What we know:
- By secondary structure, the chain is mostly beta strands.
- The protein has one domain.
- It is built from 1 helix and 5 strands, in the order E-E-E-H-E-E.
- The protein has one helix at residues 42-47, and strands spanning 7-10, 17-18, 38-41, 50-52, 59-61.
- It has a 3-stranded antiparallel β-sheet.
- Strand 1 and strand 2 (17-18) form a beta hairpin.
- The longest helix has 6 residues, at 42-47.
- It starts with 6 loop residues before the first strand and ends in a 14-residue tail after the last strand.
- The model has no long low-confidence stretch (mean pLDDT 95).
- One zinc ion is lined by residues 53, 55-56, 58, 67, 69-70, 72.
Amino acid sequence: MSNPSEILILCPYCLSPIGEEIRFCPVCLQDTSRDAKVEMTQAEYARQIKTACYYCGKPIPHLANTCAACRQKQS
Ligand SMILES: [Zn+2]
Ligand SMILES: [Zn+2]
């Protein structure tokens, strides 16, 4: 069970939930110290508009600039 008002810390590139202390995103492998991490609640995270990755077609958050599945930067 997850708490909908719990704040998630997301990678600024692929928008995967990562920890506050994480520097290199374990999902897209980018250095997250070069950009502010994104914070949103569980509820907001679940409600994000998804779009298909330009390369692999997996659904990714439409604000993500990097696909969490294939790590390609979206153009
Ligand atoms: Zn990432
Ligand atoms: Zn992809």
